[in-house]
Fold this protein.
Amino acid sequence: MQEKNITIQYQNFDNISDLPSQMQMLIQEARAAQQNSYAPYSKFNVGAALLLDNNKTVQGSNQENASYPIGLCAERTAISACVALYPNEKINAIAIVANSQTTEVKFPVAPCGICRQVLLETESKQKSDIQILLHGNDGSTFVFKSIKDLLPLHFDAEYL
Ligand code: THU
């Protein structure tokens, strides 16, 4: 038996002003996207913004439904919008913000497993990494260079 470890690396910026201006702008876009969140059931509002290779941005927000399981996360809403609007454009970064109407959400919120898997597929389809920025209401931002860092030992097309 061998004990094995998986280590992931990410950067933690305490203050948004420490980030490059393009990334600060992307977080503001995610905040704007959050305004369009439709979350009457969870009361948990999520916003996401994508930075494309052509420097355009695409927003997405969570869209819930009375049939709970069919609700969509902000990340996947943004990716679907991106494919519809700019089918051939690479995504270089995604910024994600979240807030709750019922509890205090201080720290950066990480994407759910399904969204990680979708981001992984998007990276593999476009053959380049997507930088992940998780921005918290405490002002801090976690930056990952690829979704692979948030999804070690992932399942992908290599197995098929
Ligand atoms: N949610 C997202 O939009 N993104 C995530 O990665 C985590 C969860 C949404 C789904 C649901 O509308 C609400 O947050 C509570 O789970």
Remarks:
- The mean pLDDT is 98.
- Residues 21-34 form the longest helix (14 residues).
